[in-house]
Amino acid sequence: MIFYFSATGNSKHVARSIADANGDEILYMPELLDSGSMSFDVSGEKMLGFVSPTYYWGLPSVVKKFLENIKITFRERPYTFFVATYGTKNGCISQSAERILSRKGIAIDAFYEVRMPDSWTPVFDLTDETNVQRRVKVADEKIEEVKTQISSRTKGSFMSDCIPEFISNMFHDMYDKARLTENLMVEDQCAGCGTCAGNCPVHAIMMENGRPRWILDRCVMCLGCLHRCPNFAIQYGGKTKDHGQYMNPHCIGDCAEYD
Ligand SMILES: Cc1cc2nc3c(=O)[nH]c(=O)nc-3n(C[C@H](O)[C@H](O)[C@H](O)COP(=O)(O)O)c2cc1C
Ligand code: SF4
Ligand code: SF4
User: How much distance in Å is there from the Cα of 53 to the middle of ligand 1?
Assistant: First the structure.
């Protein structure tokens, strides 16, 4: 049983690759939060996994909420792992996940990281296709390595791109302050298709007169709406238009979580 959150497919690809190699299933955290079905008896499961992107050197708020609310019971805990995907540095994401789950009596046997193209396009430019493809290829090799470690039930922390917690926490504190949808805007080429609203993991978009309107406070800043828009009509601040859209190539055509 592998729980994941993903906006642009990187973490979904990791979760699915591990699940496929082990005949396991993946479950989308926002959908479970929506359904209120948050109790899981993992007795007899092959493994218990959590896969998440890194936001501001820590956990995305939707993942934090999920981990805080999940109820897990077992007779014997299956091998448990956490995988962080990230673009540059993953800060203290593993400690944050470990702390939340340990309060529920769930220990994590292994922590892994997979570096991916960075979906934070207000800063990172993903228009160089060759570079993106190269990074996806390197990530795919890393996923193979992680799969092998998971298959052999390796224990330990395999995180190397961390930042000390006291520094990470200062940066992560800025995430909540920055989670304001006023930076998101829609341009004239919007065709009113509703893809953005339909796939927002936290329902922070309402369609009004055929155009998206963001609901302040709900947004978790995943940028899924920006990257999924078929007309690239959503921007975040002044730089994203020049930095392109991104979806993990393994998930193209399969990135709509709510269809
Ligand atoms: C709001 C936001 C904040 C991010 N912060 C970080 C970060 O602090 N460090 C990092 O290495 N990558 C950061 N990223 C990049 C993502 O963690 C990375 O691209 C991840 O693989 C995306 O996963 P997904 O495709 O499953 O959504 C950020 C992305 C977003 C949207
Ligand atoms: S996905 Fe793009 S084109 Fe479709 S409604 Fe949203 S902004 Fe408009
Ligand atoms: S409004 Fe866009 S950026 Fe905000 S949570 Fe929804 S899909 Fe993500």
Answer: 5
